[in-house]
């Protein structure tokens, strides 16, 4: 199947190359000399293949660092996903993009996203994201988040009892995904029954992998399967929404129990409530964005702790002290989370070296000058976590795992950006912090572990994961 897609791609690239050669050279000669340095690669596909394949080989930073060295450490020109693009690098590049949202730039997603996430009311994913941002703070505000800690603890206990205990060997990534997905289903739509959760899990996998595939909508392609999966999940969500409406009307559900109740009961500035399909779309987006990222982070926590016994010991000591101070059956709470300082430093260092999202796109909404170079309106602009996270200018000895980088005031502004920055910074950051810490608490309390494949390859597509899912041998603590 893979061969089929590669051949299709090859055919596509060469036919486009010959038919558009003329246009390409015409465009090239008309461009002004003040554009950022760089090359635009092949017509239409540009440098997309290099961009993607460095990730597939496990070195997404190579695409960025090669070009920073060759052209400019500040900004370089390229051509990605069919679009003229510039990659903004370093802390200054991050700062510029993050602080010019809606002034010079705005968020941008490839057109394929709108096909997989068709909005029920025919607006674009861009407009829907703006609505989503307005909706989320209530669900993710500190008081609400503090309520979720006990629920996260309860789900984590069930998860570890069902899937980890009494096993000698497990594969980490699918289990980490199972955990974060179960949590998201419980906290977003109050679906807690593992069988009901499992019914969603497969279509979600199809959806996630189709989103980043070639956007070819033919029977059997990953993109086509993603569209079908998206339709299936939306139907299931609508059924849940209809039931919830009844339950709310009959007083069987609470207005504050999850984001679904919140969306059903909140009107916009004109007093209009959201349509059922609209709510289904929003929840679908949240479920996608909110569980794959955190499961990648949890997986890499396990990988690094297996490789670094002294770091494991530090996390173990911190978590065991917290556990000892609890009475039997008492759930974790906000006070406990505040004590998990070293564990969070470790998680941050994990996300510095293996950021779950590599970066994100913006679109220039006007012509502007950056660093002396012209950025034309309509160009797509990319910020990349890797341009700072592995840069010795900001993180000396960048490949060394050193959680103390996050002591005190931590890294310099705009250098550590796993959650982005500015007005579009990930709204789920605190939620993610809680779920990762609760996961680490249960993990180290129960086990030590070792990797079964010592030098397992990492694949970044688009999230980093060990190629075989990180199989480990578990050693339960005896005391
Ligand atoms: C370790 C876990 C996570 C990481 C590393 C992460 C990272 C990011 C990043 C880098 C962005 C893009 C910012 C940009 O466009 O510049 C983003 C956006 C977003 N994230 Fe997260 N995220 C995580 C978990 C979550 C969770 C748990 C949720 C939901 C509860 C969530 C919801 C969102 C949403 C809705 C957006 C879009 C915001 C917008 O477009 O304005 N994320 N995230």
UniProtKB/TrEMBL annotation:
Tagged with keyword Phosphoprotein: no
Protein name as it appears in the record: Cytochrome P450
Family: Belongs to the cytochrome P450 family.
Transmembrane segments annotated in the record for this chain: 6-25
Gene Ontology MF terms in the entry: heme binding; iron ion binding; oxidoreductase activity, acting on paired donors, with incorporation or reduction of molecular oxygen, reduced flavin or flavoprotein as one donor, and incorporation of one atom of oxygen
InterPro entries reported for this sequence: Cyt_P450 (IPR001128), Cyt_P450_CS (IPR017972), Cyt_P450_E_grp-I (IPR002401), Cyt_P450_sf (IPR036396)
Higher taxonomy: Eukaryota, Viridiplantae, Streptophyta, Embryophyta, Tracheophyta
Domain of life of the organism encoding this protein: Eukaryota
Entry annotated with the keyword Heme: yes
PANTHER family noted in UniProt: CYTOCHROME P450 26, CYTOCHROME P450 716A1-RELATED
GO biological process, one term: sterol metabolic process
Known cofactor(s): heme
Binding residues annotated for heme, in chain numbering: 426
Record localization: Membrane
Chief localisation class: membrane
Any one GO CC term of the record: membrane
Keywords: Heme, Iron, Membrane, Metal-binding, Monooxygenase, Oxidoreductase, Transmembrane, Transmembrane helix
Bilayer disposition of the protein: Single-pass membrane protein
């Amino acid at each position: 199947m893979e061969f089929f897609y590669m051949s299709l791609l090859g055919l596509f690239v060469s036919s486009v190359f010959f038919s558009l050669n003329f246009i390409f050279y015409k465009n090239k000669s008309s461009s002004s000399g003040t554009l950022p340095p760089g090359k635009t690669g092949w017509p239409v596909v540009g440098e997309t293949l290099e961009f993607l394949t460095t990730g597939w080989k496990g070195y997404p930073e190579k695409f960025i660092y090669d070009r920073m060295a060759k052209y400019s450490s500040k900004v370089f020109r390229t051509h990605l996903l069919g679009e003229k693009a510039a990659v903004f690098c370093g802390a200054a590049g991050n700062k510029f993009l993050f602080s010019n949202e809606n002034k010079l730039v705005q968020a941008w997603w490839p057109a394929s996203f709108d096909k997989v996430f068709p909005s029920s009311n025919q607006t674009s994913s861009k407009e829907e994201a703006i609505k989503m941002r307005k909706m989320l703070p209530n669900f993710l505000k500190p008081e609400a988040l503090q309520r979720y800690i006990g629920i996260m603890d309860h789900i984590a206990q069930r998860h570890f009892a069902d899937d980890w205990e009494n096993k000698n060997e497990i594969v980490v990534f699918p289990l980490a995904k199972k955990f974060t997905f179960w949590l998201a289903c419980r906290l977003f739509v109050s679906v807690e029954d593992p069988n009901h959760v499992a019914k969603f899990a497969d279509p979600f996998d199809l959806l996630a992998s189709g989103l980043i595939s070639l956007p070819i909508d033919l029977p059997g392609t990953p993109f086509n399967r993603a569209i079908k999966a998206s339709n299936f999940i939306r139907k299931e969500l609508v059924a849940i929404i209809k039931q919830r409406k009844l339950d709310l009307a009959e007083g069987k559900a609470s207005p504050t129990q999850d984001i679904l109740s919140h969306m059903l009961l909140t009107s916009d500035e004109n007093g209009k409530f959201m349509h059922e399909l609209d709510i289904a779309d929003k929840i679908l987006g949240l479920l996608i964005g909110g569980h794959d990222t955190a499961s990648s982070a949890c997986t890499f926590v396990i990988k690094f702790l297996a490789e670094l016994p002294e770091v494991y010991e530090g996390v173990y000591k911190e978590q065991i002290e917290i556990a000892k101070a609890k009475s039997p059956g008492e759930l974790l709470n906000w006070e406990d989370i505040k004590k998990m300082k070293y564990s969070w430093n470790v998680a941050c260092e994990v996300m510095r070296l293996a950021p779950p999202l590599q970066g994100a796109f913006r679109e220039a909404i006007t012509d502007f000058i950056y660093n002396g170079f012209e950025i034309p309106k309509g160009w797509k602009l990319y910020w990349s976590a890797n341009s700072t996270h592995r840069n010795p200018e900001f993180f000396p000895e960048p490949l060394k795992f050193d959680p103390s980088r996050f002591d005190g005031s931590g890294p310099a502004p705009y250098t550590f950006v796993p959650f982005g920055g500015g007005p579009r910074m990930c709204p789920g950051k605190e939620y993610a912090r809680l779920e990762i810490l609760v996961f680490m608490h249960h993990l180290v309390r129960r086990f030590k572990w070792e990797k079964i494949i010592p030098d397992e390859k990492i694949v970044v597509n688009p999230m980093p994961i060990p190629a075989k899912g990180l199989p480990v041998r578990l050693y339960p603590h005896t005391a």
